[in-house]
UniProtKB/TrEMBL annotation, chain A:
It is a multi-pass membrane protein. It comes from Alkalilimnicola ehrlichii. GO terms for molecular function: NADH dehydrogenase activity; oxidoreductase activity, acting on NAD(P)H, quinone or similar compound as acceptor; quinone binding. This is NADH-quinone oxidoreductase subunit H. NDH-1 shuttles electrons from NADH, via FMN and iron-sulfur (Fe-S) centers, to quinones in the respiratory chain. The immediate electron acceptor for the enzyme in this species is believed to be ubiquinone. Couples the redox reaction to proton translocation (for every two electrons transferred, four hydrogen ions are translocated across the cytoplasmic membrane), and thus conserves the redox energy in a proton gradient. This subunit may bind ubiquinone. GO terms for biological process: aerobic respiration. Pfam families: NADHdh. Keywords: Cell membrane, Membrane, NAD, Quinone, Translocase, Transmembrane, Transmembrane helix, Ubiquinone. InterPro entries: NADH_UbQ_OxRdtase_su1/FPO (IPR001694), NADH_UbQ_OxRdtase_su1_CS (IPR018086). The chain crosses the membrane at residues 7-30, 77-100, 112-132, 152-170, 182-200, 220-238, 245-263, 275-296, 316-338. NDH-1 is composed of 14 different subunits. Subunits NuoA, H, J, K, L, M, N constitute the membrane sector of the complex. It catalyses: a quinone + NADH + 5 H(+)(in) = a quinol + NAD(+) + 4 H(+)(out).
From TrEMBL, chain B:
It is found in: Cell membrane; Membrane. Its main location: membrane. This is NADH-quinone oxidoreductase subunit A. It comes from the Bacteria. The keyword Flavoprotein does not apply. It comes from Alkalilimnicola ehrlichii. Belongs to the complex I subunit 3 family. It is a multi-pass membrane protein. The keyword Cell membrane applies. NDH-1 is composed of 14 different subunits. Subunits NuoA, H, J, K, L, M, N constitute the membrane sector of the complex.
Length: 339, 118
C-alpha cells in the first residue's frame, strides 16, 4: 500500500511537470509567431480569441484531426516508432531539472550525466524518421542533422566540464547552490567563453535558426519530417520545442544561478525583491533564453553547412579546450574570487 | 540510492505512453482516404526517380568516428573535473598529458583535411 501511494505521488508530480510543459510549448509557438511578426513589421496571429491567444489550441485540434499518412515505400514500423523516440527523451530529461530550491522530481547525483544521455538519445528519433521515410529530402536532412548534432555535442560537453570543475558536483541543485549570491557570482561571468560556446551549441543541437539546415524549409522542405502529417508531426513539433525549453532551462541552471534573484547583494533593490519566490526568477530567466531563440530566428540568415561544421570543429572545440585548461589552472592555483 | 531513480523510470514510461496516446488519437480521429499519389514519397511533384537509400558522402562517417573519440574524452573529463580538488597537481598533470596526445591527433586530422567541407 505504501508503495502504491508513493507511486501515485510520483505520477502526480510528473503530471505537475508535463502539464505546464505542454502549455508552455503551446504558448511558445504563439509567442514565436507574435515576436517574429513584430520583428517583420506585421501582426502575427491575432484573430482566434483575444489577441490570438486561442491560436495554439486551434492548431492542436487541427493537427489531431488530420489524416496520418504512412508512405507506401516507408519502413512502417520505424516510421511510427520514430516520433515516440523523439518525444520520450525530450520529456524524460525534465525529471532532474530543479525548478526552485528543493523542487525537483529526482534529486540524483548524476543529474548532468543523465541530461547529456537524454539529449543524445534525441538524435535517434530524427535519424530513424529520416531513414524510415524513404524520401530523398528526409534522408539528406537526417545526414545533416546527425553530423551537426554530434559535432556540437562535443563542444557542449567540454563547456559543461568547466561548470563541473567550478561547482564540484554533477547534481543540478548543487550546481545552482554553488552559484548562490549576487549575479556576478553566477557562472556566466567567470566562465563567459564557455557560456557563449554552450549557448551556440545549444541552438545548433536543437536544429534551430541560424543552424536549421536540417529543416531548411526553403531547400529541403522541412527535412526529416517531410513525410509526417497530423499527430505524428505534432510529436516532432512537441519534442523540438521541449528541447528548446530544456536547453534554456539548463542555461539558467548552469550559468545564470537557477532560482536565485538577480538583485541579491544590491543595497536597495535586493531586500525589495526578497519576497519573490525562486520559481518566478527561474521561469523569467528561462523565458529570456527562449526569447533569444526567436530573436536569432528573426535576425540571422541561415548558415551554410560547411560553415556550420567549421564553426563547430575549428572554432568552438579549440576555444573550449583552451578555456578548460585555463579554468583548471585557476582552480589548482586558487586564483581569483570565484575558484 | 537507487530509489532516487524510480521517478525517472516512471517518467520514461509516461513519456512513451503520451507519445503512443497522441499517435493513437490521431489515427482514431483523423480521416483515412489513402490514394497512390498521397502515399508516394514526396519529391516536389515528380515521380521518385530512384530509390532514396542512395550513396552518401563518406565524410558523415568520418565525423561520426571523430565524435566517438571526443565523446569518450568528455566521459573521462567528467569524473576528473568533479574530483580535481582531491587529486590536485598530479591529476592535473595526468589529464594534461592525455589531452595533449588527443590534441596532437586533432591537429593531425585538421592538417590532413578531415574537417574540410566544400
Amino acid at each position: 500500500m505504501a508503495e502504491l501511494t508513493e507511486l501515485l505521488w510520483i505520477v502526480a508530480k510528473i503530471g505537475a511537470i508535463i502539464g505546464p510543459l505542454i502549455i508552455a510549448v503551446a504558448y511558445m509557438t504563439y509567442a514565436e509567431r507574435r515576436i517574429l511578426g513584430w520583428i517583420q513589421d506585421r501582426h502575427g496571429c491575432n484573430t482566434v480569441g483575444p489577441f490570438g491567444l486561442l491560436q495554439p489550441f486551434a492548431d492542436v485540434f487541427k493537427l489531431l484531426l488530420k489524416e496520418v499518412t504512412v508512405p507506401a515505400s516507408a519502413n512502417k514500423f520505424l516510421f511510427v516508432v520514430a516520433p515516440m523516440l523523439a518525444l520520450m527523451p525530450a520529456l524524460a530529461a525534465w525529471a532532474v531539472i530543479p525548478f526552485a530550491d528543493g523542487w525537483v522530481l529526482a534529486d540524483i547525483n548524476a543529474g548532468l550525466l543523465y541530461i547529456l544521455a537524454m539529449t543524445s538519445l534525441g538524435v535517434y528519433g530524427i535519424i530513424l524518421a529520416g531513414w524510415a521515410s524513404n524520401s530523398k529530402y528526409a534522408l539528406l536532412s537526417t545526414m545533416r542533422s546527425g553530423a551537426q548534432v554530434i559535432s556540437y555535442e562535443i563542444a557542449m560537453g567540454f563547456a559543461l566540464v568547466g561548470v563541473l570543475m567550478t561547482a564540484g558536483s554533477l547534481n543540478l541543485s548543487d550546481i545552482v547552490n554553488a552559484q548562490a549570491g549576487a549575479f556576478w557570482n553566477w557562472y556566466w561571468l567567470p566562465l563567459l567563453p564557455l557560456f557563449v560556446v554552450y549557448w551556440i551549441s545549444g541552438v545548433a543541437e536543437t536544429n534551430r535558426a541560424p543552424f536549421d539546415v536540417a529543416e531548411g524549409e526553403s531547400e529541403i522542405v522541412a527535412g526529416f519530417h517531410v513525410e509526417y502529417s497530423g499527430s505524428a508531426f505534432a510529436l516532432f513539433f512537441l519534442a523540438e520545442y521541449m528541447n528548446m525549453i530544456l536547453i534554456s532551462a539548463l542555461a539558467t541552471i548552469m550559468f545564470f544561478g537557477g532560482w536565485y534573484s538577480p538583485f541579491t547583494g544590491i543595497p536597495v533593490l535586493g531586500p525589495m525583491f526578497d519576497w519573490v519566490p525562486g520559481i518566478v526568477w527561474f521561469l523569467l530567466k528561462t523565458a529570456f533564453f527562449l526569447f533569444c531563440y526567436v530573436w536569432f530566428r528573426g535576425t540571422f540568415p541561415r548558415y551554410r553547412y560547411d560553415q556550420i561544421m567549421r564553426l563547430g570543429w575549428k572554432v568552438l572545440i579549440p576555444v573550449t579546450v583552451v578555456w578548460l585548461v585555463v579554468v583548471a589552472v585557476f582552480h589548482i592555483t586558487g586564483f581569483g574570487p570565484w575558484y | 540510492m537507487l530509489e532516487n531513480y524510480l521517478p525517472i523510470l516512471v517518467f520514461i514510461v509516461i513519456g512513451l505512453v503520451i507519445g503512443t496516446a497522441l499517435l493513437a488519437v490521431g489515427y482514431v480521429l483523423g480521416p483515412r482516404k489513402p490514394s497512390e499519389g498521397k502515399l508516394a514519397a514526396y519529391e516536389c511533384g515528380f515521380e521518385a526517380f530512384e530509390d532514396s537509400r542512395m550513396k552518401f558522402d563518406v565524410r558523415y562517417y568520418l565525423v561520426a568516428i571523430l565524435f566517438i573519440i571526443f565523446d569518450l574524452e568528455i566521459a573521462f573529463l567528467f569524473p576528473w573535473a568533479i574530483v580535481l580538488d582531491d587529486i590536485g597537481l598530479f591529476g592535473f598533470a595526468a589529464m594534461g598529458i592525455f589531452l595533449a596526445i588527443l590534441l596532437l591527433g586533432f591537429l593531425y586530422e585538421w592538417k590532413k583535411g578531415a574537417l574540410e567541407w566544400e
